[in-house]
Amino acid sequence: MKWTRITPADNIPAREGRSVELSEGSLAIFNLGERFVAIENRCPHNGGPLADGLVGGTTVHCPLHNWKICLESGEVSKPCSQHGEFRVKTFPVRVENGIVEVFA
Ligand code: FES
User: Fold this and answer.
1) What are phi and psi of 79, to 5 degrees?
2) Domain count within the chain
3) Which domain holds residue 60?
4) pTM, two decimal places
5) Residue 85 pLDDT > 80, yes or no?
6) pLDDT one-digit tens code per residue, 3-14
7) Distance in Å, CA 99 to ligand 1 centroid
C-alpha cells in the first residue's frame, strides 16, 4: 500500500464522485465538500459503478438498484435487514498541495 496522486482536488466537484483505475482495482473517490473519501468502485449487490451514484450526506446511492452504501464505513446501510454482511473496502484519502491522494 502506498499514497498515489490522483487528480487536482478542483477536478472533483462537491457531492460528486470520480472513478480511478489503480493496480488494486477501480476506486470511487468522492468530494463530500469538506473532505474526500474513497471506496471500491463496485457495488456489492451486482457490481454497479458507485462513482456514478448520487451522494447524500455520507452515503452514496448505487446507480443501478439504489442500494445505499456508507462512504465512511463501506457498509451497506439499505437494505441492511437482508444484506447486513455486504460492504465495500474504504481507502484513506488526503489532499497534499491541492492534489487528491489515495492510500491503496
Ligand atoms: S448493483 Fe448496486 S444496487 Fe444493484
Assistant:
1) -85, 100
2) 1
3) 3-103
4) 0.93
5) no
6) 999 999 999 999
7) 30
How many whole angstroms separate alpha carbon 4 and alpha carbon 63?
27
95's grid cell = 489532499
User: What CATH number does the domain containing 43 carry?
Assistant: 2.102.10.10
Q: Which residues contact 85 (CB under 8 A, 6 or more apart)?
A: none
**How far apart, in whole angstroms, are the C-alpha atoms of residue 84 and residue 78?**
9
Q: Could you tell me the three cell numbers for 63? A: 446507480
Total count of residues recorded for the chain: 104
Report the candidate in 64, 57, 60, 17 with the shortest Cα–Cα distance to residue 36.
Answer: 17
Give the Cα separation of 48 and 53 in Å (integer): 9
Cis upstream peptide for 79 (omega within 30°): yes
Ligand 1 pocket test, pick from 26, 43, 75 with the greatest ligand atom count within 8 Å of Cβ, gives 43
Place of cell 437494505: 79
Contact 4, 101 (CB under 8 A): yes
